[in-house]
Here is the input.
Amino acid sequence: RRRIIEHFEMLKPNELQKVRFTEEPDELNMEAIIEVLADPSLRAHSKVYDSHRINERDSATSILLDISGSTAGTLQSGKRVIDVEKLSAGLIYQALNEIGDRVNMYAFSTDSAMTHLYRLSGLENLGALEPENANADGVAIRGAIAETKLIPAKDRTLIVISDGRPVGTGSSGNPVIDTSMAFGEAEAQGIRTIYFNVDNSPSDYFAELTRNTTYARSLRDIEQLPKAISDFVMEHG
Here is the structure.
């Protein structure tokens, strides 16, 4: 937990950001001054100041967690898949809250009638989740998109954590293609999509499913998920 939070804290903006060679007279830029003294003809057009601007981070993140029946599976460590997923989502939630971002958590599962999207109010709700039915990822992603669009923020991100191949669409379409299209719809609306998939055999669908995402990674061992998330923060945050 500490490592992931430290990585997210690196995303905190500096209190002031220096912008060099401007016309705003906050501070003289000695390099520009020397150039003007060496060549007075530059005086009329030279920008001889550095300015200071507040660099504010304005970000919102939605975390969407798959709680389909397959997440009841037990790992060699004795942990259930859903428990490792919840740990990973909780780490992201805590870390983003600590740096002042707006962050919402959702969980989803699909039964014979519909896909259920649950809004989680905090870590207590997250901890109480249990495996349910199937997973129509595309339907749940569209629900999360609708929620995320309502958050007032300059930068919006949707992180999806799933343990396998989508198996439903809410219609007769191909679940993998439908999920890929849902990711594309999010990107088209300015929502960056991050997808973490845990599956022993993802090769037959992963490339198609993730072709519209900003970032996607497939893991064969869900125990690697917390580290994969922290690595992503370091590389792309």
